[in-house]
Amino acid sequence: MMRFLEQFASDSIASPASTASPFSAQAILDGLSDAVLVVDADSTLLYASRGWQALSGDTQDNRCEEIAADVPTSVAAMPVTHTPPRLRDALHPADQDRWDMLATHITRRERPDCWRLRVLGPDHHYRWCEVRSQSLSLASPWPATLTLHDITERVQQEQIDAANLRSLTRLISGLPAMVYRARNNRYWSMEYISDGCLSITGLSAESLLDHPSITYGEMIHPEDADRVWEQVQTALQAHVPFTLAYRIRHRDGEVIRVQEKGHGIYSPDGTPLAVEGIIFADDGDSTAQAQG
After folding, report:
1. pLDDT tens-digit map of 57-79
2. Mean pLDDT for the chain overall
3. Does residue 143 contact residue 39 with C-beta atoms inside 8 Å?
4. What digits encode the pLDDT tens for the residues 135-155?
């Protein structure tokens, strides 16, 4: 990017934008959907591609401005004809401190990872952008090039997904049942388990997830454990859901009857990887099923 922009600047001096070749560096940068910027340590825009105009609504031509004296002469362009804007001023107020952090990383040449910043758009709504940076010169960290990729739709979908997940988590947590995902082994090692497990087993979700001293498989009544395993394996081989009724031993020693409905999770070649479903206390008369 650095050499490309240096070449761009040279081309800009030699050829005005109006007569630029369709294959010139400026034409290529202006053809990108992403915004490409060159900024100094104060976030002043020294160069902005057309993608920036589309993103921010800034109609000032920042594509041919004179860069400070400490920048290589190969990047110098036309004299400034207006006060150049600052990127920091176009950011959401809550993201301006994040820009300051990003600028510190650039100054220290720490090659920061991709950052997310919000830029005020022409419709006066903020657009989420994925920002990547690189120093323009090996001699100095500034000016720096930035590429801004609009990820607003992705972020909005992430926010919707997160809200849906929170709603689902609240719903599951309120169920008088245990929602789970377990590995397909005789211990039924839990990968996920809802808070409803406490009322059914007497153990918290953390107790059954993090290096448990007792597994859910060990809680199943010894007279039912083999039948449960065989019924689940038969259902997995046939790729069909399963419904079970069996007994478990509560943490306090009481024998509890439960019902379980679940299905398998499979690899692309059909190999069973895990099972997931729901387990709830059986208050009805399931003696025949549990012993069947």
Report:
1. 877 765 544 433 344 444 433 33
2. 84
3. yes
4. 988 899 999 999 999 999 999
200 within 8 A of 258, measured Cβ to Cβ: yes
> What pLDDT, on a 0 to 100 scale, did the predictor assign at position 62?
58
Residue type, 237: Q
The reported pTM is 0.61
Cα–Cα dist 155/101, whole Å: 21
User: Do the beta carbons of residue 225 and residue 249 sit within 8 Å?
Assistant: no
Cα distances (angstroms) measured from residue 289 to each of 183, 227, 268, 276, 292: 25, 11, 34, 21, 5
The percent helix, strand, coil of the chain (3-state, each to 5) is 35, 25, 35
Q: Which two tokens stand for residue 267?
A: 């690899």
**Residues 159 and 255: beta-carbon distance below 8 Å:** no
Ordered strands of the 242-249 beta sheet:
190-193, 178-183, 272-281, 255-266, 242-249
The dihedral through the CA atoms of 164, 169, 170, 175 has a sign that is positive
What values do phi and psi take at 224, rounded to 5?
A: -110, -15
Separation between Cα atoms, residue 129 and residue 44, nearest integer Å: 18
3-class secondary structure, 97? helix
Q: Which runs of E-coded beta strand occur in 61-143?
A: 115-120, 126-135
Rounded-to-integer distance, Cα 266 and Cα 272, Å: 4
Is residue 22 reached through a cis peptide bond, with omega within 30 degrees of 0 on the bond before it?
A: no
User: pLDDT category, 22, cuts 50, 70, 90?
Assistant: low
Return all residues near 86 (Cβ < 8 A) that are at least 6 apart: 42, 43, 44, 45
Kindly list the strands in the beta sheet with 144-150, ordered across the sheet, starting from the edge strand earlier in the chain: 45-48, 35-39, 144-150, 126-135, 115-120
The amino acid sitting at 235 is A
